[in-house]
Amino acid sequence: MRLAISKDAVQRALSAHAAIGLLASALLYLICLTGTLVVFYQEWQRIEQPDAPEMTAIAPEAVQHAVASVLAAEKNKPRTTHLYVHMPVEGLPRSTITTDHQAVHIDADGKIAGPEENSWSEFLLGAHYALNIPGLVGMTIVGIFGVMILALTLSGLVAHPRIFRDAFRLRTRDNHGVGLADWHNRLGVWTMPFSLAIAVTGSMIGLGVVGAYGLAGAFYKNDIEAAYAPIFGEEHAADARPAPLADIAAPLAWLAHNEPDARLTYVILHDPGTRGQHTQLIAEHPRRLIYGETYEFGADGSYHGKVGLSDGHLGQQLAASTYNLHFGNYGGLPVKIAYVLFGFALTIVVATGTSIWLGKRQRRGLHEPRLRAGWDGVIWGVPLALALTLLARILLGNGAPLIAIFWLAAIAIPLVAIVRPEPRPKTLLRRLLIVSVTACAAAALLGIAA
Amino acid sequence: MIGPAPLVWLGAAAIIAAVLQLRRAWGLSRRSVLANGMGWALMLLGSLLALAGDGAWGLAVASLFGMACAALLLAHAAWTSPRGKARASERKAHALPEPGEPRHIGRRLITFLLTIPLAFAASLLAALGARALFAMAGLNDADGNAIALLLLPLLWGALAFWLLMLSTRRAQLICLAAPAAGGLVLTLVGGAL
User: Fold this and answer.
1) Is the pLDDT of residue A264 over 90?
2) What's the CA gap between B46 and B64, in Å, rounded?
3) Where are the transmembrane segments (chain A) (predicted)?
4) Which of A291, A306, A321 is the last residue before a domain boundary?
5) How far is CA B110 from its chain centroid?
6) Chain B 138-157, residues with CB within 8 Å of chain A CB atoms
7) CA-wise closest residue to A139 among A130, A128, A127
8) Tell me: the pLDDT tens digits for A174-212?
9) Quick check: A405 pLDDT over 80?
10) What is the mean pLDDT of residues A10-16?
11) Is B78 an interface residue toward A (CB < 8 Å)?
């Protein structure tokens, strides 16, 4: 028996594939490219601020001292509601304290070393996570693009009945668009497990809040925290009356003693300096996809239990696994490199999709220089805009208006290309990109050397 | 740091063997069910071994080996590919009108509304219905909520694709109404709202 897809279904799937692809192409390309780059989020931060103090570990007493120092420095500001201590980890061996008002690095003795300056890394993460749109709107839009990847994968499979049979044929030296189509189809097939994992986890993250609002509306009397609580644990009741600072050193010592294999990544102090304060430790578990287990402690440092992300309900473990599976944070540098390679492949699949469609139209005699130039402007303009933001960050400092630079350039370049399509802008944009990337590398190396 | 369990390495090796076997099978002049089956069986075996070794983490790591192996084979194919004379496909995708063809802007707009906002609403209702059904079957809130959050994008992606495969508006509306109505009924029966 041989399963065959009808010609009509193949043609419909091709139309669906093209329609979704064209609708999503430019922003999907941007999301894939920034997602590929942001795999090295930790490494970018080290490049941005090479002189921040680094350490392999920090003593619990030093963390306690640092938290007290940071809160003392903020005594004239509104009380921070959450205080996060990023603990030194393999990819980013730095201790950083973030409050509602500031983020500072601390040295191994717990002294404040200076402000955290990672605006480019944050900008890049924001571009990927939410297209730099504040609030939930951007995140939801990006989640929708994850759904589009799912629909593109399904339609691509049906539209190309020979896609598996030809999966190892790559005719790079063929003209007339054969090579381009082969790159698109082969990379699409072989990165499919990766692409599906990225799309499902990305859309779960992006649409998570919308889904949670749905759950809250249907089952929890519109209480969104109650919808999240069965998975990520409950928020404790606040009590704003002042109290001495919570004991943070004791929980750190408890974790080191009772969970020696767990790698502490974050200390979160809720409502510090109040009677309602309590501490959470987030610790990674080796050879797990979960971002970590959450251990809960009272203000006096006593252990109150864990949320269950590591060994609780399967739903908890599933939800906690989406982040690392999406960002490639589960196997050190080798997995990150694999994610960058496959992410780049997915970016090429998105970029070549529209190029194939344009090429087909051209071969049918449709001369559309503006469309072609506009797409050149997207493919080469987006990375060029990213390189310009990195250059601005290195040359102008942490306060450079990165979001404005990026979006102005990323929108203006395709528009200019559409307005002035001849000569075709591809070559010029490629050269500008090479110059910009080289300038970034040189400036960064000079900065590190200095 | 503790390294992967031996079963993960075995699983990765089996997945690499599966990719190599599939390459051999798909390169045969005639389709061989046995050769193809061996490839897919090795893929399944490798996945199960990796899962047994280190759970989801093991499977994720082992699958990277398979994809990396395929990438190397593709790189080899690209490097050794001779200059060919094949003509590229000129299949019309009908995504945009050709010159002289009607634009059908209204029709396209309705298709957009069906596949994006309405398919989202239907998927959300279906996901909530599934959550209510699981709750009625005795599943805890954590599992039910996580499944609903997972189902929302999965259903939406599948629904968007399937709607575009249907040729009539009537079929598309039925395709949207069925999961939406089913989800709504289950959600109401489940005691919500």
Assistant:
1) yes
2) 12
3) 20-41, 133-159, 194-216, 337-358, 378-396, 402-419, 431-449
4) A306
5) 25
6) 140-150, 152-154, 156-157
7) A130
8) 776 788 888 899 899 888 999 999 999 999 999 999 999
9) yes
10) 89
11) yes
